[in-house]
Amino acid sequence: MTIATTSESITNLQADAIIVGLSGSELQGSAAELNQATSGGLQSLLDSGQAKTKVAATTFWLQPSGINTKVVILVGLGENPTAGDCFKAGGAAAKAIANKQISSAAFYFPELDCPQLESAVAGSIVGCTGQDLHKKTKSLYAPEQILWATSNTEAVANGDKIGTGVNLTRELVNQPPNYIYPESFADQAAQLAELNNVTVEIWDQARLEAENCGSLLGVAQGSDKEPRLMIIRYTGSSAENPHLAIVGKGVTYDSGGLSLKPSDGQKTMKCDMAGAATVVGTIKAIAEMELSCHVVGLVGLVENMVSGNSYRLGDVLTSRNGKTIEVLNTDAEGRLVLADVLDVTLGLKPQHVVDLATLTGACCVALGLDIVGLFTNDQTWCDQIVNSAAEVGEEVWQLPMTAHFSDQLKSKIADLRNIGAGRWGGAITAAKFLEEFVGDASWTHMDIAGPAFADSEKSYIDGGASGVMVRTLVNIARGM
Length: 480
Ligand SMILES: [Zn+2]
What we know:
Elements (H helix, E strand, L loop, with lengths): L1 E5 L10 E7 L5 H9 L3 H7 L10 E5 L8 E8 L4 H14 L7 E5 L5 H14 L17 E5 L3 H22 L7 H8 L8 E6 L1 H6 L3 H7 L7 E8 L8 E11 L8 H4 L7 H15 L5 E11 L11 E3 L5 E3 L7 H13 L5 E6 L3 H7 L4 E5 L2 H14 L3 E3 L17 E2 L8 H10 L7 E5 L5 E2 L9 E2 L4 H9 L2
Parallel strand pairs: 1-6, 2-4, 2-5, 5-6, 9-10, 9-13, 12-16, 13-17, 14-15
Antiparallel strand pairs: 3-4, 7-8, 8-10, 11-12, 14-17, 18-19
The structure holds zinc ion.
């Protein structure tokens, strides 16, 4: 798929499909031109209620007279579209035309500002790309070429790079766990080093042992697949210390270990590396956009399996920073992996740290499946993330970090235990556990367990991995 701009008018352009964005009650620009060319056809579709302007509502209009294109898809942008609305509208239209292979689709949207246009373009790239990686007959076919009718080539190029980053994250998550395991994930992510200003460092089993990453290694020891830790550095600025460290949980498959998950719970556990995949997709986008910041991404890659060598309930692990951890549930493994990765992160002295993890089912219980939970030790930093997410239309919500939740993490035999003492507040006790490993760094934790992976499709995106938070993180890096 290639993305380009066009200055051709809607009535002259030759394309397999034309997509027209509708916003507000008055037809303007290309929509008004189309209405005129079709002798008021568009207005009557709207008047009769056949076409809707609600965000991401699509209407097919076959063989309208007066233009060169056989198929027009009308897509709603709502009254005053936000960047998030534009992402959904771009995605819904692209998904609507992706049921068969076409060579070209052209988007005619009303006049949009840069963030709106970027989001719409990113949406169009994400919407036509599916999770059908191993199907002979695909569910979605991306058009060979997508054209955007605008003179703002920079916003289109950036939207392309952001959408491509989201899709990279989605593909890594959607690939099955026999394809993506720590070593193969690291191999794929290492390709980022081909980009300007990107270097990649990979720690193997021996290095992890030498670095005393006992918490991460404890989780990994039940699997035949060796663990990895990656440090991906993007130096778009000469600042010595990173402005931002993005840390991702990369449990490439989570059986639960000896605290085995039931079959239903295991089915989608390839998605337990979504945090790590988000790091990779984000750094790709940041590097392609050549942002002037210094960002480092760290991912901890393990497979949580059952074998004669699995870590046990009751084991005590010694983490890299020296704290000992009593394991009381082997399915609370993500925090054990992150404990060591966060400690490695502190050594790089970043100004701000954000970690992403499909960490707890409790976060889904609290916030549902579409909202990312935020937890912080630095309110200013968290507010910056909240604002950045709002700008691109991704949903986040902060949960409390009151000190008393730490009481639940006390162990009789070690410094910490790896699960809270009771049923309640599990997303918070998990965050409190991570907080033990961030020292006095400015840190925010994102629990993406709900939004990272969906069982069913939405109008603007296929089911499976969502690539959530890539757009927010790119937006944050931009301001640094
Ligand atoms: Zn788990």
